């Protein structure tokens, strides 16, 4: 199978005509994208490299899902509506069963978010998947309504969606560093391999949240990005910090639980701030998006990050978040 057959067979979908903002898709030298009047494009790229981001033997269908999910998660963090994406793929060989499964996982998630594949590049080489995604956010006379990292202010409350630490729990189990009961392993593994991008929540938080990002490298490290961009500090109540998957049948001591929740990584949940007066609006947005949220702390004037327990006593510990070049 040649390069062009491969593209036509697995990545071009003549049965699904392009709609909306997409005026031209796969097949020409460029795709054409027309954002609606009153909107601006939100653009993000993520690369997934074999052995670095996924195991060589990972199920290609879940890999197709995850490759797009991590990009959709960036749009969610900005409150953007997904429009389209491009796929740059480097493959060791044209394995048809692999390609069919990869495309199945990819398009199932793409269709669920009405996000169309409009182009890309295909070459032979080590397995490497790079997606660039395009979304739109409203822009008004007062400026963009995108959620940014820089908008947090002292007094704002700090919130997180879903649960944190599940993906790390699964990773440790798959690496043989931890034993989990099979039902819990299955649930945690789904969180690692098939994260749910919080698109509906991100869009519902426009005009409500003051700052947001998606947690990919671990809660504390990613919160650090908001604090740095916003020029403030924060205090987290570690007893509130979004619970791990319900885990009655696994015993984690408090230090382990904290390390998973605070520094786990690969969560793809939204971490956001909102003025205290917007608390009810945050809960309404969460209901509208059918996505649970938990308030875990607040933004403060004093720089740095403080961890406290329910009684306000300092919690000590070192929790490193993930850094490819550390
Ligand atoms: P060019 O030589 O102009 O870069 P290519 O021959 O690489 O074009 O690709 C032909 C067409 O197929 C282009 O429209 C390109 O966007 C699309 N394409 C290539 N690889 C992929 C892919 N993996 N997924 C989707 N579209 C792709
Ligand atoms: Mg090309």
Can you put this structure into words, describing what you see?
The chain has 326 residues and is an alpha+beta fold. It folds into two domains: 142 residues, 60s Ribosomal Protein L30, Chain: A (2-Layer Sandwich); 152 residues, PurM-like C-terminal domain (Phosphoribosyl-aminoimidazole Synthetase, Chain A, domain 2, Alpha-Beta Complex). Strand 1 and strand 2 form a beta hairpin. It is globular. The N and C termini lie far apart (41 Å). The site of adenosine-5'-diphosphate has 13 residues, from strand 4 and strand 5.
Brief descriptors of the model:
326 residues, alpha+beta, 60s Ribosomal Protein L30, Chain: A, Phosphoribosyl-aminoimidazole Synthetase, Chain A, domain 2, 2 domains, six-stranded mixed β-sheet, five-stranded mixed β-sheet, 9 helices, 13 strands, 32% helix, 26% strand, globular, binds adenosine-5'-diphosphate, binds magnesium ion
What's the SSE blueprint?
Layout: H1 3-10, E1 22-24, E2 32-33, E3 39-49, H2 60-78, E4 81-91, H3 96-112, E5 116-124, E6 128-140, E7 143-144, E8 157-161, H4 166-174, H5 182-193, H6 199-204, E9 211-215, H7 219-230, E10 233-237, H8 254-263, E11 269-274, H9 279-288, E12 293-300, E13 305-308
Parallel strand pairs: 4-5, 10-13
Antiparallel strand pairs: 1-2, 3-6, 4-6, 6-7, 8-11, 8-12, 9-11, 10-12
The chain binds adenosine-5'-diphosphate (ADP) and magnesium ion.
Adenosine-5'-diphosphate is lined by residues 7, 11, 26-29, 87, 89, 117, 119-122.
């Amino acid at each position: 199978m040649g390069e062009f057959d491969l593209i036509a067979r697995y990545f071009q979908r003549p049965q699904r005509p392009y709609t909306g903002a997409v005026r031209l898709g796969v097949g020409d030298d460029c795709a054409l994208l027309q954002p609606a009047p009153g909107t601006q494009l939100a653009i993000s790229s993520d690369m997934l490299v074999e052995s670095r981001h996924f195991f060589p033997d990972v199920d290609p269908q879940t890999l197709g899902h995850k490759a797009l999910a991590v990009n959709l998660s960036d749009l969610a963090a900005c409150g953007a509506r997904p429009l389209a994406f491009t796929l740059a793929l480097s493959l060791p060989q044209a394995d048809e069963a692999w390609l069919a499964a990869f495309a199945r996982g990819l398009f199932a998630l793409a269709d669920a978010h009405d996000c169309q594949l409009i182009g890309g590049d295909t070459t032979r080489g080590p397995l490497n998947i790079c997606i660039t995604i395009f979304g739109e956010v409203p822009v008004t006379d007062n400026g963009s309504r995108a959620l940014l990292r820089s908008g947090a202010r002292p007094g704002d409350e700090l919130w997180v969606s879903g649960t944190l630490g599940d993906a790390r729990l699964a990773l440790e189990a798959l690496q043989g560093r931890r034993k989990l009961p099979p039902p819990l392993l299955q649930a945690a593994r789904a969180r690692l391999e098939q994260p749910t991008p919080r698109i509906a929540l991100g869009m519902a938080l426009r005009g409500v949240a003051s700052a947001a990002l998606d947690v990919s490298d671990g809660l504390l490290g990613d919160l650090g990005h908001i604090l740095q961009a916003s020029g403030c500090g924060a205090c987290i109540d570690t007893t509130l910090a979004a619970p791990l998957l319900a885990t009655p049948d696994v015993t984690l001591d408090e230090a382990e639980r904290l390390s998973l929740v605070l520094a786990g990584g690969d969560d793809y949940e939204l971490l956001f701030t909102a003025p205290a007066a917007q608390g009810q609006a945050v809960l309404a947005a969460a209901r509208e998006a059918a996505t649970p949220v938990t308030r875990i702390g607040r933004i403060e004037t004093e720089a740095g990050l403080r961890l406290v327990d329910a009684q306000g006593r300092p919690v000590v510990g070192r929790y490193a978040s993930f850094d490819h070049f550390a």
